[in-house]
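User: Some background: our group keeps a shared notebook of sequences we're curious about, and every so often someone picks one and asks for a predicted structure to add to the entry. Today it's my turn. The entry only has the sequence so far, pasted here. Could you supply the structure so I can complete it?
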Amino acid sequence: MKNRLSAQAGLLAFLALAAGGCGAVIDYARDNELRLGFLNSPSFISPARLRVGVMPFHDGVGLGAPGAGSNLARLLSAELAKDSRLEVVPVEEMAAAMNAWNFYDSPTPAQAAQLGSDLRLNAVVMGSVSEITSYSQRKGWRRLARIFTSQRDYVDAVLAVSAVDSATGIILVSRANVGEYDGGPGESQFFESDLPEAPSQEAMEDSLDKALAESTHRTMEGLANLPFKARVISAGEGTAVIAFGRDVGLRKGQKFVHLEILRTITNTIGETYQVMGAASARLEAAELNEHSATLEVTEGLIYPGDVVQAVN
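Assistant: Of course. Here's the predicted structure to add to the notebook entry:
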């Protein structure tokens, strides 16, 4: 599957357009659109590179291949890493952290955010193979000649992928993405069997590749809308320290704000949103190390655990 996806890397934009998305729980991503013949690319709002980690996928259908979830995560990580505005940590590092935290299968958004903060991540991506379906049908005019025409065989793979803001635990994007494998027409027959056939390895890989391409595009769209945010790990007399520095491209003089949280909203399925208010504190990057920065508080008060975000 890895070789197949690599071979299709040049066609990623076209695969993302061709694979249909459905079943959104939350989707802040804009729909794919063609403008002047080109697929829209995400426009990032962060002034620094975002550190992102992809957890091993949960195999919800029993693919049977050892390490299938980790392989899917590596493929998604490799595609995300092609964008220079993202810094993607190895899947092995994510897996080790999950084991250390005793997080198994599909962690909650709060658990993902906890792990992301521990690994100095801006966002954590979680995924699962939620469905693989094989079916046969006729489309268009083929439906009018049921006896003498052949059916086309299809395999649909569904990947459910979510991206979580490590600083707040808020879900940035959560969407089920479908990849369809078209096996072409089968043999013409007078009587059709209703018994489903097990999809071939080629069909599963092709449908998963297409679903993964769509997942890559949707995840990028969700991350593009994420401001660069960091949790304050320590605060002193007029200063605050965050666990990001030159490694993500922060520069001296970069301005930050701490926003008031007006209210928190939880929907019927337990997902949480924050309604932000005015800035209660303003800061500026004064000293930079490779993996940390000291911010000077120019207005207001800051405490450990507060979340600050960069101002463009």
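Suggested note for the entry: Confidence is low (pLDDT under 50) at residues 1-39, 144-148, 187-193. The chain has two domains: 2-224, 229-311.
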